[in-house]
Amino acid sequence: MKKKLTLLTLLMLIIFSCNTDENTSQRITPENNLKTYSDFTGYGLAHNLAMDHIATMPNFNNASLQDIFYFADTYSDSYFNNPSCNCDDWQTQQTHMTMIEGMLDDMNNASNTLVNMGFIDPEDIPLTDMLLTILDNAVSPENSTYKSVAEFTAEIEAFENFVINNYTVIHDLTTKTGNYAANILGACSIAKNSYSYWINATLDSSHPWNYRLIHMSYYNRGTNRIGPIQKGFFGDLWRGIKRGGADVFGFLVGGKCGGIVDGRDLGCAIKHAGKKSSGVR
């Protein structure tokens, strides 16, 4: 399940590919990008607030995924309040969740799946793979190890710095549209906040998501199907971090949110990330 490439190896590969790329328009000074970077902080914070809101729904611990899917639409803030977002219907949500869960189980081929489904372009694979490698290496139920929140955050922030230093980030704060580099930074914001959120939800029995995470989060249309590797403390962590991965994939997949060249609606995508996170089975 774990990717064999280390973070450093991927950095070297991507730096090499960037340095040999004839399209120099993708390289700008980091000072310009740093002005844009702070725009993405709210994406991850808003995602966590949406998860808190979903947990306030009536009979939350035993609510169906379909009920949670629709209740998620009742949350709004400056990031989630997107009346123009053409959200997936319930049937499409189920289709996407099946695809996302398959990618979470096979991270090595996840980028190819995203390309084949038309969610990213082939040239976006290196950045996508680098982010997915960080996620995939965060926990190992087989070895009973996982990254602390500080360790995971440091790895994501190192990746963010790489993006800022090597890619043009196009992001309109007002319309919340952006290119793929902006899309990746938005996904990083969600990854950092989501990882912390689901680790806390796993470890804190008083957390509003704890019961669903421990007892209800890995089932197939209502039927428990927890296998031996998913049982116990590290299995619980694995399922929690799997939700974090679903948050990121939900943002990248993002429903009918426009193209990813320079006009994707990231405000729409974050709403989909929340709905995908709450729909992990």
From TrEMBL:
Statement: the UniProt record of this protein carries the keyword Signal: yes
Biological source species: Kordia aestuariivivens
Keyword Signal attributed: yes
Keyword entries, A-Z: Signal
Signal peptide: 1-20
Protein name as annotated: Uncharacterized protein
